[in-house]
Amino acid sequence: MGGGFVVIPVLRLAYGISPSLTAGASLVIVLANGISGSIAYLRQGRADVKVALLTAVTGVPACVAGALAVRHVSFAGFDTIYGVMLTIFFIDIMRRRNTTEPPKLRLPGLRERTLVDKSGEVFRYGWSPPLVLLSGLAIGFIASFFGIGGGIVFLIVFIALFGMPAHVVTATSMLSMLFIAPIGVATHWFEGNVDLTLAVPLALGGLVGGQLGPQIARRLSSPQLLTTLAFAVLATALSLIGKHVFAK
What pTM was computed for the model? Predict the structure, then answer.
């Protein structure tokens, strides 16, 4: 997911950084983590390169729009929208974490896709180029608006609609951010939203974490991976929403 969903509550709650600067700094770590993580996932052969590239086609222009839009949101609005989005994401993950079958919903144009990783493990799931392009719009906008890399939307859409296994989703999401995030970072830079005193240490940590994450993920089953992610997301959501609830 790029690590942005962890960085945002730290910057907002611990340091009180504005939404714009938070998104800018967070997206830098998403880019650093994407570079490092994508290398590791490509070595494992678990990233669907075609899907990642197709997502970036619409994700890149949407990423620019998200970076421009974040300056118009209030502190409370940013935290609340993000917290609600994460709560929805938590519910969706918990509902689907033990599901290994393809989705029952068969949309027009949905075709089966097969990916074989370097160890010989076979992954099968559905996909549709028009839906991937449409998803790229949401992924790119949210990636830059919140600075989280868009991984949340990627996981919900690609697991819910396509039945993509968690390990392939995480790898492909990371790779798509490698194409999308640089444009978001550049836009935030020109908007004055990138504070190097925040971004550089985060990026250095992201480079290290990007190598450790894939190694840990390989040792977890899909349900374990999704459950771990879900509760990390829930803790983030409650902390952001709780800040404004208890402040009143």
Answer: 0.75
